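sorry for the late reply, my laptop died twice this morning and i had to redo everyting from scratch. anyway the thing you sent over, i finally got around to it. pasting the sequence first so we're on the same page, its 253 residues, then the predicted structure underneath. double check i copied it right bc i was rushing
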Amino acid sequence: MNKQVVISARHLKKSFGKDENVQTIYSDLNIDIYKGDFTVIMGSSGAGKSTLLYSLSGMDKPDSGEILFDGTDITKLNSDKLAVFRRKECGFVFQQIYLIDKMSLMDNVITAGVLTNKNREDIRENAKKLFSLVNIPELTWKKNSSQVSGGEAQRAGIVRAVINHPNVLFADEPTGALNSANSAAVLDVLTSLYEQGQNIVMVTHDKKSALRGSRILYIKDGEIFGECNLGKYESDHPMRTEKLERFTAEMGW
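ok and here's the structure:
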C-alpha cells in the first residue's frame, strides 16, 4: 500500500556565502516525507541536516526548487502567508528551549495556542491533557520556565509545539542539551505522540534518538544518500539496534 506524501521536495538548492566563499549545502536534493512516519534525518556535522529541516518547514527558503507541503508550494508564499501557514501546519522543538522565563509553563502554551484558537478555555483544557501526556503535574506547569529542570522545560516546549495540532512536528536535536535521563523522557514523549498519529521529522546525530524513528534518512554530499526503515519502535529490541548500526556503518558514520 502506497503511503500518502505530506511533504515532497524536488531539486532543492541551498548555499551560503558569495563568490569564492560560497558553500553549497545541497544542489539537487529530493525528498519525500510520508504521513504516519517518524522520519529521522541523520548525517555528519555540516551535512545540512538542520538546513534541510528549516527548508522543509518553511523557516528558511531554498535558493531554488519546489517544496509541496500538503499540496501547497511553500516556496511561492510571501513572508506573511508563510508565517500563517507555519502557525497552522507546523510545530517546532529545538535544542535550545525557547520559553518565556517570566511566564508559567501553562501561559507559555496558551500564548502559542491563541495564535490559531481564540478560545482560551479550549486551549487550557487541551494543554492539561498534553501536560498529563508528558508527565508534568499541575504543580509544575504553574511554575515559570526558569523554575523547572531542562527536561521539564523541553517537555513543556513539546506541549507548546503541538497545542495547535500541527500536521508535522519538526524537532532539531531536541535532546542535544539534556542529560541521559531527561533525553529519554523527551524521546518517550515524541514516541507517544507518534503512536497517537503525529507526523514527526527529527534531526539528530544521536543513535539512541534515531532508534525512535520509523524511517531513517542519511544526508551526505548534498543528497539523501541512504534510507533505513525500522518500523514501529520497540524498546530494548536488539535487532532494531543492529539494523541501525549496520545502516550507519554503510553510510560511513
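The domain at 5-250 is CATH 3.40.50.300 (Rossmann fold).
thats about all i looked at so far, will dig more tmrw
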